[in-house]
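dumping this here before i forget
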Amino acid sequence: MLAAIGAASIDELFDEIPAELRVGGLSAVPAGLTEMEISRLMQERAEQDGRYLNFIGAGAYEHHIPAAVWEITTRGEFYSAYTPYQAEASQGTLQLLYEFQTMISSLTAMDVSNTSMYEGGSALAEAVLMAVRSHKKSRRILMPATVHPVYRSVVKSIVHNQGIELVELPYCTDGGNVLLESLHTYADTEFAALVIPQPNFFGVLEEVDELTDWAHANGGLVIGLVNPVSLGLLKPPGQWGDEGADIVAGEGQPLGAPLSSGGPYFGFMCCKQKYVRQMPGRIVGRTVDLDGKPGYTLTLQAREQHIRRSKATSNICTNQGLLVTAATIHMALLGPDGIERVARQSHARTLELIDKLTAIEGVERMFDRPVFNECVLRLSQSAIDTLRALEAEGIIGGYNLNRYYPEFGDAILVCATETRTHEDIDNYAMHMERIIGARRLDPPCAQKA
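structure:
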């Protein structure tokens, strides 16, 4: 091969790489292991991790996943399926994707859904780009500080070099939500869209109806950012205000994707019919053939590889298809009643958790508005030390908010889903009370040490 292209050696082939960037050998890479040795190593690592009681959410939620979900998802027909370019050979995959679109559209009360995005953060970024393309007059987005901080970071990374301005909206220090009064500054200015998280990152429920109507009255679109499980209990974004949200995005992980070291996850996106040609990704359609038999095919495909070329809205294609398969099966098994039941149980467990923890001296609720399945708690002592002490007892006690919201001081975001039992919550409260009580009684010198 080298002779055919006129290179005398591998080194000459890659001579454009500076010498200081080359590595002579891979000394840090250990020798290869057999399958048996790898299995033993993975088992030992898993045992080191142990099994924890999980009270952390912050965008990734521990829900029960019926065994049938991944038993079906990992069948060869789904597990190895690629983008269904050839409709005649992909009817099963196409039908499943069509069912996913139908379920997500129904859950959100929106007109159209695509067949998923990469994950929640980039789905929101794509929604922002879509809103700017649809609005045409403005490249300004009103982005509340109550939106997941990682999502805001992802959106900024994707859009900041495209001349799009992200305006951060403050939150009410009492309620943890966006106040309508804080938007009056922007009433006489052009903006492409207002992002409304429901519930927001603090678990708090926003006043979605009045925010939606305000945005529409001032010429902007509304981007709803939602937790799909919460829609089993809360008003869907398609019914917010007088006209409903224009674009909806979110993270699909709560629908059948396990907590697997941070992924893989998938995002979802919906919109009103009139914006469908600005939607990225793929849309599967149902039709009939010459004999009247139903069939499925890719309809709108916004990829640059297809006829859209330079007018493409994204390059998303195969995407997180396997996770979408799991989500579709998960929703089909639960049905509307099942999703509502999960939502109600998660909400009830969270209220129980809040009651038990705030009964402890040194733990108080930070915001006074209603929540779904998460809540911000302020501690009278170091949040980091408290969470470490809980972890030593086998409890993941919550998410330390100091990194993104230093103004909170020592505050944590706690979460409960239907998987947490009364005994789990009592166990958490018992250890929290002991840890906080012990630290409160320690003399100052002992605390410093």
